[in-house]
Amino acid sequence: MKATKYVLTEKDMPTKWYNIMADMPTPAEPALHPGTGQPAGPEDFAPIFPMNILEQENSTERWIDIPDEVLQKLAIWRPSPLFRAHALEKALGTPAKIFYKNEGVSPAGSHKPNTAIAQAYYNKVAGTKKIITETGAGQWGSALSMSCAFFGLECKVYMVKISYNHKPYRRLMMQTWGADCTASPSNETEAGRSILAKDPDCPGSLGMAISEAVEVAVQDETSKYALGSVLNHVMIHQSIIGLEAMKQMEMAGAYPDVIIGSAGGGSNFAGLAFPYALDKINGKDIDIIAVEPKSCPTMTRGPFAYDFGDTAETIPMIAMHTLGHNFVPEPIHAGGLRYHGMAPLVSQLILDDIIRPVAVHQKDTFKAGITFARSEGFISAPECNHAIAATINEALKAKEEGKEKTILFNWSGHGLVDLAAYDAFFQGKLSDHDLPQEQIDAALKDIESYPKPKQAT
Amino acid sequence: MKATKYVLTEKDMPTKWYNIMADMPTPAEPALHPGTGQPAGPEDFAPIFPMNILEQENSTERWIDIPDEVLQKLAIWRPSPLFRAHALEKALGTPAKIFYKNEGVSPAGSHKPNTAIAQAYYNKVAGTKKIITETGAGQWGSALSMSCAFFGLECKVYMVKISYNHKPYRRLMMQTWGADCTASPSNETEAGRSILAKDPDCPGSLGMAISEAVEVAVQDETSKYALGSVLNHVMIHQSIIGLEAMKQMEMAGAYPDVIIGSAGGGSNFAGLAFPYALDKINGKDIDIIAVEPKSCPTMTRGPFAYDFGDTAETIPMIAMHTLGHNFVPEPIHAGGLRYHGMAPLVSQLILDDIIRPVAVHQKDTFKAGITFARSEGFISAPECNHAIAATINEALKAKEEGKEKTILFNWSGHGLVDLAAYDAFFQGKLSDHDLPQEQIDAALKDIESYPKPKQAT
């Protein structure tokens, strides 16, 4: 029998997270205060995040202890299995060896609980009673809902309206875990009301939902905000993916030539890639690919600039690849990949040629996901199908070139709650276009008056 | 850190299935030919099943080799993890130790692929080109669709109409895996048309859908039928659950006082319970509980009798607990528990006091599932919530009595594709009644003219 899964026991779980800020060739530039434009310290973030999380946000410690209480909850599904995709390789007729890390085994079905558990725990310790957040596809909102249930915290989620309508099941997951979920933009906040006044049919965006969540979070000292991607502490929490994968690839006697992850805010990608990125910084030859949709091409076409993370311009500005905080992407079904910006750490590593971004068309991602499902069995989240599409491209390139090659990608979550998107694909209702240049120009205009980062593009 | 999961590697997977027919105190009674009423041989089943499966159906070999090709596909998710439910125990304040076997880790999300993979493989070997089946909640249909994709077979599924409408996502899973799914009763078959002529709004039943599938399967030599529960070979294939659990309970240093599984056709329950039932037959004191809905109380109120497995009376009669093959259960949301009959092997072991059946109310099962989700994280299939409700009852009894007790239940699948049922619960739309006596009387009338098994009740 050919080995299919490489499995670690919970005793083999990493007990420290990896923080790439200790090793970056060029340090990421500091966040800026939204009012003054000066570098923002922890105190500027204090109304929205607890101090223990802010310490991580700015840490340059290479290794950070994972608290026992967090490990205990992560053990519900971690270490996650690493798979060799024998059947996919056979279906493609490729000489490439394809491995994937299966983050879909968590109760919420994605990698998101890796950081949700940690954030709920740190908030609990800091005395937070209620966490407010936003969610795109609902992966993050459901992960945080579950984590809040575990630690006895209240949870409120603003869900991007287009996803709220496309994905009723994720709202029901949040409800099952005891959270309160509202479609954004909503009438519950200033930010929401002002958006609806201009456009009552607005489909929403992550930037808008963040503004709503932050507005509510700062109203009460025992309420805090939580973000499921983009920020440094999230990248740290997700590093457990790559740390486990390194042990498992060793068990398989393999080392990846290519690493692939889909990137919306950047966290599932970074989780797998950053521990390997350290090897690359130290001289290893690895092609590390971040995959995004052609209709929301933050990394491949967005400038590197200081921009706001939210629409209402209430939280500090960060240096990142961005399509502008007023960008409203078309309602593609990979809701988790509709964010206008990209994690500062991922953005910086793109500038330093550690990470190579690519963009793929929506229809190709569903075709890839169906090929994967019929060979490997698992039905993938639409976000994850982006990583699969890029993996298949690399595997077919290896076939053309007759080259052996080892590819490792992050299977960030299953798509069982996203099947309406597959339905749209089967019915031929999915569009398949590149972002028009006008929208890139609008982004440039959006950010032109802001401070420029050193490597501004 | 407290141990949460007990994990085996794929090298530890059982390589033989356990067949309880070798060890039953009273052998199960033979199936009867639908026309003659005489004991039916393999030849009577030959138009619908391939001969290699029929050999298993009648085997009294205690151990049956699992083919390598089957093991290779099972390795995608097996061995499945065994969990200690620390958080649920804490939430209940019970002295009981609760363990559960997680069968939701399969790509289809339930235990069903354990037999679907095996049946697809045996059909492939026997030269079958296309498999036709029925499905209730869609767990079986989706599992078979995936398995057919793995072995390059065509797949056609008749899905009980009420579930087809409640669970569009399962139809989409089948479509993603390349199968063709039709709501039953349909206009595609004689059986379907005759039912629709009498009742155009008929919500369907498993018995009806079986009739449709069998009718189509016998029309072509290279087409076969497959059943996801009830029959002996299915119970054999599912025994891998219990065989793994025994190894894992040993790792945990525990042995169950109570074993619990939900039972519709009986296969997930039997999968966990039968290897332990052998210990009970050999003198061990174990309470083995099969759980069913009060609204479809096959085991607790249905007589033990010879009855047809399908509505059109086309397949051989089997001796089982039954509500009569004309029974149409109310549209409860646990579609997998709506079958009028029960596996003959489970039925026989109830008569011999090896298995104790209990029935639970629908609302209690959802309450139990929500308690489980908020403590353990996983959102359960409505069928599985029946096992959780019985587990909670046993754990609270242990608390009342101040007794230590070890409970092991089968977490047969996740409910992420069944969230519409949770929605109905949240909205207070679920009914909660016992089956009226008239329907039991109708069953008795239904079967009174058929041959009587020796232990007829």
Task: Walk me through what this model shows.
The structure is a homodimer of 457-residue chains. By secondary structure, the first copy, chain A, is α/β, with parallel strands linked by helices. Chain A contains 18 helices and 15 strands. In chain A, 41% of the residues lie in helices and 16% in strands. The model of chain A has no long low-confidence stretch (mean pLDDT 95). In chain A, the strands form four sheets. Chain A has a seven-stranded mixed β-sheet with strand order 1-4-5-15-10-11-14, with helices on both faces. Chain A has two domains: 16-27 and 56-64 and 111-232, Rossmann fold, CATH 3.40.50; 78-109 and 239-447, Rossmann fold. In chain A, α3 (68-74) packs antiparallel against α5, α9 (190-198) runs antiparallel to α10 and α15 (362-376) packs across α16 (382-401). At the A-B interface, α3, α6, α8, α15 and α17 of A face α3, α6, α8, α15 and α17 of B.
The total tally of domains of chain A equals: 2
Named at the architecture level, the CATH assignment of the largest domain in chain A is 3-Layer(aba) Sandwich
The name of the CATH topology of the largest domain in chain A is Rossmann fold
Mean pLDDT of chain A: 95
| Helical content band of chain A | 40-55%
Provide the β-strand percentage band of chain A.
Answer: 15-25%
Largest β-sheet summary of chain A: 7 strands, mixed
If interface size is counted as residues with C-beta under 8 Å from the partner's C-beta, which chains form the largest one? A-B, 48 and 48 residues
Distance between the termini of chain A: 52 Å
Number of discrete helical segments of chain A: 18
Number of strands of chain A: 15
Class by SSE composition of chain A: alpha/beta
